[in-house]
Amino acid sequence: MIQARIFEPFFTTKPVGQGTGLGLSTVYGIVKQSDGFIWCYSEPGHGTTFKIYLPLAGTRTLPMPAERRPVELRGGNETILVVEDEDLVRTLACRGLREQGYTVLEAKHGRDALEQLERNHRSIDLVISDVVMPELSGRELGTRLAVLRPELPVLYMSGYTGEDVIQRGLLEPGVPFQQKPFTPEGLARKVREMLDGRAERRAGAV
Hints:
By secondary structure, the protein is α/β, with parallel strands linked by helices. It has helices at residues 2-5, 23-33, 87-99, 110-119, 138-148, 162-167, 184-205; strands at residues 37-43, 47-53, 79-83, 103-107, 126-130, 154-158, 177-179. The model has no long low-confidence stretch (mean pLDDT 83).
């Protein structure tokens, strides 16, 4: 059970305050971004072995990317529901969004989210949901929201890469996705992008 979760962001077996759970998830992200693979073998009483496979580097010199000026970070006053079973991740995400002016509601899993939506049916403008959760997964939650509120945008997040969640059958291709770990600024930009897109679709439908 522990080995299956070792690459999840913020997962740690250390006591509170002694570990962030970001070390192996950061390594996993770097390896995957380099088109590589990381493999773990562990046996009680014999230790653990990690093997990392990376593609052979070529000798071709790549052109330097053009410098891009960062886009100004904009907040808003919309209401966002954050669905995340890991308390630390949920707290960090909610704090960052509140600092940008958003009203943020919190849910610990999918069923809790459905109860929140029932109480605040029309006031919620966006749902941010973890993919792997107890009670009700992110995909199951999204399926129910497509019936209850088909116009409500959902941003999924996971410690797996976007390619991994599709290969594992956790999400459909093309859905909005934010990989963990993320920075508050990165999450806020993605949220603003989705909310602006929703406003544009509404304007085009009038």
